[in-house]
Design brief:
Rossmann fold, 2 domains, alpha/beta, binds S-adenosyl-L-homocysteine
């Protein structure tokens, strides 16, 4: 049993079972032993690879989106560019390379990184040396009254979800407890009366992933956009329609592992419900909301044209890499990201 597992076990012994969301939160963000707190999980030698780490084209096209948004807003003299969960800082670095080509943008931008991991903050500082950037732990810390552009790639999937389980007549909540030999196991507990998935009836044994932390985060982003003006772009794996299904997964060394094993050493995520994100944006009153697949978004931002331009100045090996990256980012086969990943754009 590792240190984090001991901490969680003692908490369960003292205070009773914890919810799936509480477990996920501790596994990822425990200040000392949480997954994101002590590791750089990206790349071939890490646990997983994300789109900005696959190719510079991804970040460059997000950069084009940022420039467009800034121009559509009337090129304000001051605006805040926020990245939620910036990982290694690769995405921001690619965005800024492109954005510096837009006249006046770099003079107008105030860059903020929302990050909780001390290890990744150090990495981001190294990659983005020379830029004037401020770090914060939560987007709610941004209170200035200037337009904001918020971006996030694979951010929402890392925020905790709760599992509601349908019994014959009602929904209950899945919890994590400990069994006779001291190992983590699942249990169920009653939920507050009336807590059930919106618009979903469900049949016995169905699981619904309820994501109050994600919803609250999205609400915060949209309220900021509504009051200050601006836009948001979030990209993640997920689905367009709210539905039942267990998508919680733990990944270590590019392989799926048991969520309850080796807590704190595997990345735990779940698919993002984009219908819920869009619903929150609508509730806040942000008018312009677009959903698309990653494939269609990247094509719209000029994927083919950018890849062709890079091909012209690439050697044979680099050309091969570009073709593979484009396929991985926008392809629709199993294991490719084009349709698995979805995009929400919110403009206000
Ligand atoms: N956007 C990056 C990294 C995605 S991984 C990329 O595409 O490569 C998730 C990122 O979110 C990590 O940087 C992690 O440290 C950060 N993160 C996780 N939970 C967070 C939280 N609650 N608040 C802010 N950042 C968080």
């Amino acid at each position: 049993m590792n240190n984090l597992e001991k901490i969680i076990r003692d908490r369960i012994i003292q205070h009773g079972p914890i919810s799936v969301g509480e477990y996920m939160m501790m596994a990822l963000c425990h200040p000392k032993y949480g997954y994101y707190m002590s590791k750089d999980p990206f790349g071939k030698d890490g646990d997983f690879t994300t789109a900005p780490e696959i190719s510079q084209i991804f970040g460059e096209l997000v950069g084009v989106w940022v420039i467009n948004r800034w121009i559509e807003m009337g090129s304000p003299e001051k605006f805040i560019l926020v990245e939620c969960g910036p990982g290694r800082g690769t995405l921001m670095s690619d965005i800024l390379r492109v954005a510096s080509k837009a006249k006046g943008l770099m003079e107008a931008v105030d860059i903020r990184m929302v990050e909780t991991s001390p290890v990744l903050i150090e990495k981001q500082k190294e990659v983005l040396k020379g830029f004037n950037i401020k770090w914060c732990e939560n987007i709610s810390e941004i209170t200035n009254n200037v337009p904001v552009i918020v971006i996030g790639n694979e951010f929402f999937d890392a925020l905790p979800v709760e599992h509601l389980v349908k019994l014959k007549d009602r929904w209950v909540q899945k919890v994590i407890s400990i069994d006779k030999i001291g190992k983590f196991c699942y249990g169920l507990r009653e939920v507050m009366a009336g807590l059930k998935p919106e618009g979903i009836e469900g049949k016995e044994e169905d699981i619904y992933e309820f994501a109050p932390v994600r919803a609250a985060y999205m609400r915060n982003v949209c309220e900021l956009i509504k009051s200050n003006g601006g836009g948001a772009l979030f990209i993640d794996y997920g689905h367009f329609k709210s539905s039942v299904g267990d998508t919680l997964q733990a990944v270590k060394n590019h392989k799926y592992v048991d969520i309850l094993e080796d807590t704190g050493n595997a990345d735990i995520t779940s698919h993002v419900d984009f219908e819920m994100l869009a619903r929150v944006a609508k509730e806040v009153g942000v008018s312009d909301i677009k959903l698309s697949t990653q494939r269609n978004f990247l094509l719209k931002m000029g994927l083919k044209e950018r890849a062709a331009a890079l091909m012209k100045v690439a050697d044979e090996k680099q050309q091969n890499d570009i073709v593979c990256a484009v396929k991985r980012l926008s392809g629709t086969d199993n294991g490719e990201m084009g349709e698995l990943f979805k995009v929400i754009e919110v403009n206000g």
